[in-house]
Amino acid sequence: MKNNSSKRMLEFNEVMKENNDLYSNLAKKFKMSDCMLWILYILREENKVLTQSDICNMMCIPKQTVNSSLKKMEAEGYIELLNINDKRSKQVSLTEKGLDLANNTVDIIISKENNALSKMDEKEQELLINLLRKFNDLLKDSFLEI
């Protein structure tokens, strides 16, 4: 018989996978990869110049995965990869075509997310974020023992 923590962990993982599926299904609906969706999302949400490395760090996924998506997005005309001071770093910039794509995809997602979150009161919003952050910190510490 499973203890209560094990049951809760299963339930938590189901909820997180369901959340992941919501975004994956939107990516498919918009005919793009999950990685492309998240790159567009980050480029729209961050109001600053971002490099490939910045995007990798924000997405917490391997550089090769992000690099492959960026190269595909560049080939399709959605972004430009511009050299900056350090020749190894490239600034990621949306083209007009990329801005149009973002307007018709991730901007809609962001609007719907904000709408859903606004249906929670301030305390619920804060609690949601604080508990997820606390769980991630505790998990990080636990995983150091592996």
| Arithmetic mean pLDDT | 93
N- and C-termini, Cα separation: 25 Å
| CATH topology annotation of the largest domain | Arc Repressor Mutant, subunit A
Would you identify the CATH architecture of the largest domain?
A: Orthogonal Bundle
- CATH class of the largest domain, named Mainly Alpha
How many strands? 3
CATH superfamily of the largest domain: Winged helix-like DNA-binding domain superfamily/Winged helix DNA-binding domain
pLDDT < 50 runs, ≥5 residues: none
**Helix amount:** 55-70%
Number of domains: 2
Radius of gyration: 18 Å
Strand content: 5-15%
Biggest sheet features: 3 strands, antiparallel
Based on the model shown, name its key terms.
Arc Repressor Mutant, subunit A, 146 residues, 2 domains, three-stranded antiparallel β-sheet, globular, mainly alpha, 7 helices
